[in-house]
Amino acid sequence: MGREVENLIKENTELLETKNALNIVKNDLIARVDELSSEQDILREEIRSLEMVRAKMNDRIKELETELRDMKEKSEGRGDEDQVGIFGPCSNAYKEKLMELQEAVKWTELQRAKRMNAMQANKKSGSIWDLYAFVAFLVPLTIRNRFASKARSRRKTSKNVDFMDPDLASERRAAERRQQYKIVREHIRKEEGDRVHVNGWSLPANSTEETGSSSIPIPVFCRPLLDLDPSLKIWCASGVTLRGGKNAESEFINDEKLPSLIVGDDSSLLPVNDFSKKRFQSTEMSALESSSLLWVCSSNQDKSHVGLLDCNNPNGLVGSFSVPSAQILCVSSVPGVRESECFLVDNGWKAFVKGGGYVKDLPSDITDQDEFGTVQWTELRKLDSGEEGTPTYCGLEQKPSPKRSRDSIFSDTELSKTGDGQYSRLPVHIKQELEKYEKCDGDLSAQPTMWLGTQNEYILIHSAVTEWQKCLRKVKMPDAVLYIQYCEGRVFAALANGSNLGKATSSVRSLTVVGNFLWAAYRNCVVIIDPKELIIVKAIAVHPRRDSQVRHMQWIGDGVWLSIRLDSTLRLYHAHTHIHLQDVDIEPYITKMLGTNKLDFAYMRTTALLVACRRLWMGTGTGLIVSVPFCEKFQATGKDEVHGPGGLIRVYSDRIADEEAVSKSFIPYCDMTKAQLSFHGHKDPVKFLLAVPDDNGSRKAQQNKQQKLLIASGGDGYIDFRMGNTFKKSLIRLSSYLIYHLDKI
After folding, report:
1. CA-CA distances (angstroms) from residue 68 to 62, 64, 73, 410?
2. Beta carbons of 501 and 372 less than 8 angstroms apart
3. Which residues form a coiled coil (predicted)?
4. In terms of pLDDT, which residue wins out, 187 or 213?
5. How far apart are alpha carbons 232 and 395 in whole angstroms?
6. What confidence category does residue 639 fall into, taking pLDDT thresholds of 50, 70 and 90?
7. Distance of alpha carbon 401 from alpha carbon 171, whole angstroms
8. Which of 66, 625, 731, 745 has the lowest tally of Cβ within 10 angstroms?
9. What's the rounded Cα separation, in Å, for the pair 478 and 490?
């Protein structure tokens, strides 16, 4: 009996424990139910608020749809004008491209005809050829026509396949190009005799003995410009001239002018006086007055990109920014205002306005000679800058182009404004030149600027000393801007419609300063302009064909070198008498160097031209770079005898008669037997060749030494012609730049 009571007590205890546990669980469940009820109430409130927001958004959508419908109805009348504004520049570009393609077809047909004539002349006629002709004559005409039609259909089918499949066509072209590179590489390896290879250059064997190894350009750097965007192709570049301007007190900045220097036999530097400076100054001397900072512009169909590069430290970009919806065609450096410049007073423009027809002995290739040389005054009006905040100007009768986005995107290399001033991240030698502009808070357009010419008919003016990405002013032009040149305190813009010099049938492709005059390339002529009086002094025809345009001009001493579109011959003209002095054809030289099976060398055109380091530098349409030292043909005696390139150049003072100075002036003749070919080149045409000073040391420390220059070239891709197409595709396709160093000028 006692055992049963103990069991009942034990069961009662267990039941009490279970009851307590269930009570705890019950309390937890009740608390959880309360929490879920609270969350449910909160979610219901959120649902109500979201429903209210949805109702408001539906109302807003209906309002926007109504506004959009109204805007479409209003914009239907303006659609044609906007389309004309958009497609106008494109049509001009297509016309220019059509002319180039027509010229290329003519050139190809001419080369093919020459090859066929040579083959027919070399073909031996004999009995076997007579028998073949007799058998071909016996074949019925219907069978021959059937075979000919089948062959034509096969050729047409293959062309259609290439056209319908661009990837296949590009692959075929790439394979052909690789094979051509291989043939060129084998030819270079077999090349022996009177040539030597030094520092990546092919030189005449006697050139190193005459001038020494210090006169051989040394390639010091090569790298892609933009690693992240291979679609951007290098288009143009310009050095930055950090001269002139006004300080914070609106006083003119008097620069410590670098003397223009001529190297003598004794390696001494002779200062040039005012008379001789105007006569002997050239691109080489102006390069010494600029900085080593370059603005390199790359473009595609959608946008443009500007990269700032220091040639003395080219490992990376100093800065960069994008220009959306604008293709940059040219860039030029304009120094700051100077006290010596002439300023236009009120109504002073009336003295320059004049009619045409005053130019005598015009070439017959220039039409409308009665209007040739007309000067008109165009008054500008300021447009509403809108969201951009950039002052925009255009003529009174001009209509602005459709609004485009101009939000500049600055890269990670943006200038740091913390620490040691806003130029703290710049190289030391560039920072020293920019310090004089650091506290100039006035009008930035009075300081050194960079002018960008675009295809959509605008000139964009940016500061060259601070806030590079910010556009200071925009000027609407009548057509696309192809070239910009600063001369005598004025800026001249060459337009695609030729309105600077003639009718809108041809463009002005190039401008260059020659002494006190401005030379402009118009069609197959060179027009010489007085930049101060704005009158045409003379016009000369440099090519017999009207459609052969002058593309590049370079001046040194008393000579001006010219290149013609789709022509391998360069022409030398006297800078003062305008006499034709010399022709230099580079095609036989390159054919000899790289073989007869060459890389599209039928289009042996010059795409870049530069005078620097007593040399003529040429960049071709196939990425080759050729350098030819200058030589003088006149015979001198005694001390005045010239010993090849880099020899003594006498400088005459004002007391010597002009005739004596002219008779002993320097004329830059070229001898192709001394030409030098660089094995480092580009895959596509060389876009630019520029000379900048070598500023590894301070300028003051170099005044007692020989000035040194760096030569920069830019183009699409990189090729070493000794190795062929053996690099990575990324390196071959990216826009790249090369930098050469030369010990002496």
Report:
1. 10, 6, 9, 33
2. yes
3. 26-81
4. 187
5. 32
6. very low
7. 39
8. 66
9. 19
Q: Rounding to the nearest 10 degrees, give the CA dihedral for residues 516, 521, 526, 530.
A: -30
Please state the φ and ψ torsions of residue 343, each to the nearest 5 degrees.
-105, 140
354 with 345: CB under 8 angstroms?
no
Interior/surface letters 365-394, b for 16+ CB within 10 angstroms, e for the rest? bbeebeebbbeeeeeeeeeeeeebebebbb
- Token duo for residue 738: 């090369």
Strand ranges across the sheet with 709-716: 218-224, 735-742, 709-716, 686-693
CA distance 235 to 255: 32
Place of tokens 């440099």: 542
Nearest to 326 by CA among 304, 297, 311, 353: 304
For the chain, what are the domain ranges? 193-224+260-269+568-745
β-strand pairing of 490-495 with 508-514: unpaired
CA–chain centroid gap for 139, Å, is: 59
Q: Which amino acid is present at 370?
A: D
pTM (2 decimals)? 0.69
Tokens of 255: 């620069």
272: DSSP letter: -
Most confident segment among 51-55, 265-269, 442-446, 621-625: 51-55
3-state secondary structure 514-578: ECCEEEEEECCEEEEEECCCCEEEEEEECCCCCCCCEEEEEEECCEEEEEECCCCEEEEEECCCC
Contact (Cβ atoms closer than 8 angstroms) between residue 452 and residue 305:
no
Beta bridge partners of 712: 690, 739
Please tell me whether residue 47 adopts helix, strand or coil conformation.
Answer: helix
**Contacts for 680 with CB less than 8 Å, ≥ 6 apart:** 200, 219, 222, 625, 718, 719, 720, 738
158 alpha-carbon distance from chain centroid: 37
Give 531's Cβ-side CA count (13 Å radius): 21
C-alpha span between 552 and 385 (Å, rounded): 36
Q: How many Cα atoms sit within 13 Å of 571 on the Cβ side? A: 23
For 600: left if phi > 0, alpha if psi spans -120 to 50, otherwise beta; the answer is left
User: 204: which strand partners?
Assistant: 195
- Helices (H), strands (E): how many in the chain? 13, 35
Question: Residue 599 above 70 pLDDT?
Answer: no
Q: Residue with structure tokens 């520092």?
A: 199
Runs of H (alpha helix) within 76-165: 79-122, 127-138, 141-164
pLDDT at position 232 over 70: yes
Name beta bridge partners: 319: 308
Identify the weakest region by mean pLDDT among 6-10, 339-343, 579-583, 622-626. Answer: 339-343
Q: What is the pLDDT of residues 53-94, one digit of tens each?
A: 999 999 989 999 988 888 888 777 555 555 555 555 566 667
Q: What is the pLDDT of residues 334-354, one digit of tens each?
A: 988 887 776 666 667 777 788
